[in-house]
Amino acid sequence: xxxxxxxxxxxxxxxxxxxxxxxxxxxxxxxxxxxxxxxxxxxxxxxxxxxxxxxxxxxxxxxxxxxxxxxxxxxxxxxxxxxxxxxxxxxxxxxxxxxxxxxxxxxxxxxxxxxxxxxxxxxxxxxxxxxxxxxxxxxxxxxxxxxxxxxxxxxxxxxxxxxxxxxxxxxxxxxxxxxxxxxxxxxxxxxxxxxxxxxxxx
Length: 202
Ligand SMILES: C[S@@+](CC[C@H](N)C(=O)[O-])C[C@H]1O[C@@H](n2cnc3c(N)ncnc32)[C@H](O)[C@@H]1O
What we know:
- Helix content is about 40%, strand content about 25%.
- The protein is an alpha/beta fold.
- It has a single domain, classed as Vaccinia Virus protein VP39 (Rossmann fold, 3-Layer(aba) Sandwich), CATH 3.40.50.
- A seven-stranded mixed sheet has the order 3-2-1-4-5-7-6, sandwiched between helices.
- Helix 3 (about 120-130) links the parallel strand 4 and strand 5.
- Helix 1 runs parallel beside helix 2 (about 70-80).
- The N and C termini lie far apart (about 30 Å).
């Protein structure tokens, strides 16, 4: 099953590279502000083509994970430009190979619209982040408005065939996985959002 998802994101890499430039122009300054809060041992999921590396503060130890080899081939030259330590790891966010409590910060951008099982992925992030560690997220989610939300439900089988799902309820899933949302910002309507979360004590 995962092979099908990897193949989809391999095909989407060239498109993401061009769409990503527009996203960066519009939202790059907000991502920089959010991701600038990452400290110490930092996990970035999912790396995609590496457009988000530029938003991390200098001097961190970053591990960037993605399961698509084509995405990672785009990300490689950007990883070399990062002024700190940045290693690229090919892996599935739903089954991370890292030990419990290994990261001080975790950063995500347009990730939980894309992970096949978002709850499984967020539970893995909860496992590998240290107690008190910060999860910093830039994500698009299902709209709260019933008409727009319904439209997103209808569109998701099509959008999900080529790329991300449009109707993910990421706010709820983050809480279900054991994180407390400390701050939440609406960037575009209540669809594009930033979340600052902390790992709840067990
Ligand atoms: C919409 S793209 C976003 C990429 C990047 N974060 C950005 O904002 O440009 C979604 C990314 O998630 C990756 N992905 C989806 N499911 C994954 C999984 N289970 N494990 C690792 N990477 C995954 C895809 O390969 C793709 O690079």
